[in-house]
Each structure stands twice: as C-alpha cells, then as structure tokens.
From TrEMBL:
It holds the Pfam family FliL. It comes from Lebetimonas natsushimae. Controls the rotational direction of flagella during chemotaxis. Its main location: membrane. It is a single-pass membrane protein. Keywords: Cell membrane, Cell projection, Chemotaxis, Cilium, Flagellar rotation, Flagellum, Membrane, Transmembrane, Transmembrane helix. This is Flagellar protein FliL. InterPro entries: FliL. Signal peptide: none annotated. Belongs to the FliL family. The chain crosses the membrane at residues 21-46. It is found in: Cell membrane.
Length: 174
C-alpha cells in the first residue's frame, strides 16, 4: 500500500509537470500567432494607407510629378536672358538679388518675337523681382511662385507662342 501511494503521488506529479509544460507550449504558440497576425495587420494597414487613403490632391501631385519627368524629356528651345541685378524690398538693410533666367519656349518661332520685345520683357521681370522681399523668394516654394508669375506676365505680351517654363540658372541673394 505504501508503494501504491508513492506510485500515485509520483504519477500526479508527472501529470502536473506535463500539464504545465503543455500549458507553456500552448501559451508560446498563441503569443507567436498573435505576433504574426499583428505584423500582417500592421503591414496591410500601412501599405494601404499610403496609396488608397491619400487625399485626391496628393494623388494628383503624384500624377503631376510623373508628367513633369516626362515633360523634361521633351524640352523645347531654350532662350537665355542676360543677368538681372535688382534691389529687394527690405526695411532695415540693402538686399540684392542677382539671377540669370532662361525661358523654355513652345516653338522656335517665338525666339524672333522675344528678340523684338526683349526690352519690355526685361522691364516686366525687373519690376517683378524688385517687388519681392527676401522672405518671399528664399524658399523653394517662393521661387516656384516667382517663376510662375514671370511666366504668366511675360506670356501676356507674347502673341506667336508662349513660354512653357522659366528656369533660374543663377540665383544669389545678398
């Protein structure tokens, strides 16, 4: 009988330790499964978030960037202008802008019209440049706005074609 009690106690201990090992294995498997599922969910949420849930403006910007890259492959005739040096609007100190500008034309025929109207075009550009502050043209966004304003104003006086792009080939603020 004493031997039977010892055998029963030993079997109970083995069952408890076996049960503990089984419980530990199940917990580890569940944790690994949760980690894998969590990783997959995070991956899908982040990958879908960048493409599907973007605002239409952001999708349009991507399309515009692709168009810009393809536009650069088809650059039209370039018309370089002489250097411009203008005073910038400033409250406390004399500030200067020195820049060189080149126009991308939509057709070679436009070069002759620009040659004829060059004094008026230079006057327009000087007026635009000298009306700006350092803060307005210091950033990349400010330079883009300045290019667009120059393009728009110069195109207003052209009749045989238009300027597609304005390029700053030199831009120094002092």
């Amino acid at each position: 009988m004493a031997e039977e009690k010892e055998n029963k106690e030993q079997e109970e201990k083995e069952e408890k330790s076996g049960g503990n090992k089984l419980l530990l294995i199940v917990i580890i498997i569940l944790l690994l499964l949760l980690l894998v599922i969590g990783g997959l969910v995070a991956y899908f949420l982040l990958s879908n978030n960048s493409d599907d849930t973007q605002a239409p403006e952001q999708k349009q910007e991507k399309v515009i960037k692709k168009k810009k890259v393809s536009d650069m492959a088809e650059v039209g005739p370039i018309y370089p202008l002489d250097q411009f040096i203008v005073n910038l609007v400033s409250n406390n100190a004399d500030r200067y802008l020195k820049c060189k500008i080149s126009f991308e034309l939509d057709s070679p025929d436009l070069q002759q019209e620009i040659d004829k109207k060059l004094p008026a075009i230079r006057d327009i550009i000087i007026n635009i440049l000298s009306s700006k502050t350092v803060e307005e043209i210091q950033t990349a966004k400010g330079k883009e706005k300045l290019k667009e304003e120059i393009r728009r104003k110069v195109n207003e006086i052209l009749t045989t074609g238009e300027i597609k792009h304005v390029y700053f080939t030199e831009f120094v603020i002092q």
